[in-house]
Specification:
Length: about 290
Amino acid sequence: MFFGSIPALVTPFSNGRVAEDTFRDFVEWQIGEGSNALVPCGTTGEVATLSSDEHRSVIAAAVDVAAGRVPVIAGCGSYSTAHALDMIRAAADVGANAALVVVPYYNKPSQAGLAAHFTTLADHSPLPIVVYNVPSRTVADISVETLGEIAKHERIVAIKDATGNLARVTAQRITCGTDFVQLSGNDDLALGFNAMGGIGCISVTANVAPRLCSNFQKAMREGRWDEALDLQDRLYPLHAALFSDASPGPTKYALTRVRPGFPADLRLPLVQASEASRRVVDAALERAGLI
């Protein structure tokens, strides 16, 4: 259902508002550059700062521009099960193809609580669900065993794994089955992740280098591992640079370099990338051949 290079899209802002025309142009560029699916309203999209109306309108814009050419996986996570379900239903109403649901944060639920959360969502969701496991942000970490339990539900179809633990790929492949889709949540680990059974990456770097990230994923799908390794070496400094300050500040700065006129605005409490971060980003963009 989902594979390849899948950008976790930034949300452009201008004068405090979502810059919808810029976002629509950005989505069209992403598709033209070979992205295989789109994730609006994820962490990189500053979803925590969006109102409910903005969340809905950003997803709707992505769906409208995509026009069925690639799937749209809408970010719909919350630490409230009821709120997450409301977000999933709103995404379905505007035509999203799936929901990306982060492991509930802050509340620190038990494994039983995580299983109940995702099972309840799946029981009532009109959309397939991609579980997003990122314990560095959520504290809670869905275990391999719990994932295997909920993966039996027909609506829970994939995981975005940002644990940074490559051994999880094999463990989850054994526990959840080979048809369960595994997507890396870490650009820098995507090569090893796919070698161990993954089939793609929900990517920050693809915001800035969609063609290179698409070519990288395609090379792995086609077994051209030497070419993939070359692209990994070319992209690796950029993967690191985009986290040289609070994300997505460096990513939005990078976009101003590769797409002049793209707004670098963020919403508080996030602020623009520091001067030191900008220097690191510039060097990485030059190494990747993007500027």
